[in-house]
Amino acid sequence: MATSCSSQLSKCVKQHYLDLPQGDKVQAMYFWIDGTGESVRCKTRTLDSEPKSIDDLPEWNFDGSSTYQSEGSNSDMYLIPVAMFRDPFRKDPNKLVLCEVMKYNRKPAETNLRHSCKRIMEMVANQHPWFGMEQEYTILGTDGHPFGWPSNGFPGPQGPYYCGVGADKAYGRDIVEAHYRACLYAGVEICGTNAEVMPAQWEFQVGPSEGINMGDHLWAARFILHRVCEDFGVIVSFDPKPIPGNWNGAGCHTNFSTKEMREDGGLTYIEESIEKLAKRHDYHIRAYDPKGGLDNARRLTGRHETSNIHEFSAGVANRGASIRIPRTVGQDKKGYFEDRRPSANCDPYSVTEALIRTCLLGEEGEEPVEYKN
What local confidence, expressed as pLDDT, does residue 69 receive? Predict the structure, then answer.
């Protein structure tokens, strides 16, 4: 099992330094989405006192030519703090700070999808849209081989691993437990976790989160997972089909509801939204992975608990459909629905914005509508 050199360094020695008093100073680790739209970057600055809100955090900058976000001749990019969390690695009073990225002209960077998402969420704030996203991921060694798999072969076929218990069924639970507790400490709205169908594949859930908070908290949870895996010397992959063949892919099923859907008779509004989604399938497929559907094409084959990428479908308790209505929702006639199409490496801002545009703003056609300020 290949692990990183850094993970072999003594954590006890490191802890000696982390236990030193830091006075009134605070370390704030700013993190942001880079030019790939999938990876995160971070760097730390010292603050003179503990920030109480986003307003207390200064803007910052970085070299965008080294993060696939600008050219070297005009490389300064701006970091705009938008969400703050407790730091589970350095602990209180230190902070993790999620940032939007702005270009030199103060316009959003190409992979800053939060900027547009926030505007759309503000347009429907009175409908109180709630989201819950189920983030699947795969733990890999530094050589790209799935954690715990035989070096020259495959584990036993799928079946015993989903929610599995035991050393021969659950691969990497220490990482999962560390991540869960770190998210709770940070204030991330994580609500659960479980082992998935493929060995070394896991899932955590974030939500219910309202509006823009969904994207903020999922990105924070992803960042923390990357850092936890870094400490253990392994890699987390959000690739939607990390292992070809008869193995499950990785998605980010997205549960969605509005105030009307959650109230008595809400099933009517759920069904209306599904009808709208059926007419805009291609638009959503493009919004549901960072490569405009190319990544998801490897996963959405109609097999391994997925729908076919070329067809829209919906059903009660059907995990082979594009949209699943949970059985309890069908019985209660109210609640939420689950969009099973988003890929594990999706941008949650893109996914949640697309759902709002289609279901609540009633947009049609293959392109998003441009709204005036």
Answer: 95
